[in-house]
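Entry 14. Structure prediction run on the chain below.
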Amino acid sequence: MILNLEINKIESHRHVPVEDIRGCKNINNDINIRSTALVKRSTPWGEKTVLRAEYSYAINYLGPNIGYIRFEGTADYYDDEKRLEQIKKDWDQGSAPIEILNEVANTMVASVTPLAMNISKSLGLPPAVQIPKITFQKHKKKGEEPTFYHG
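Output returned:
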């Protein structure tokens, strides 16, 4: 389980004037999880050993290079200490457990996405994640089944 996620660095830049962004449809998400270490951490259950992984997450606006938003930080993963030692060993040998990579990546993306949305709006970049489009339909006449909006 992820005990803690920290953001250590936020970097963003828009390379072109806002008027040139309108056609940007190519948004690339780049996630990198690397550099693990076993560290002692104070928790509500006392001092525990955790697996600390460094991450970087970049949202790149392409077509051409329009701008980017980049986050860097650490995630602390907790499990049984012997299991953590094995996970660290496997990770160092290039076999990081997929379920742990997924948990770290999903926790990180869920944590930084609201910030990315605010940053993208402030810079005049398209939303960092796709926002659902709602389309209402005209009401049908009396006696017909009602219609609902479609996303």
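The first strand starts at residue 2 and ends at 14.
Filed with the rest of this week's runs.
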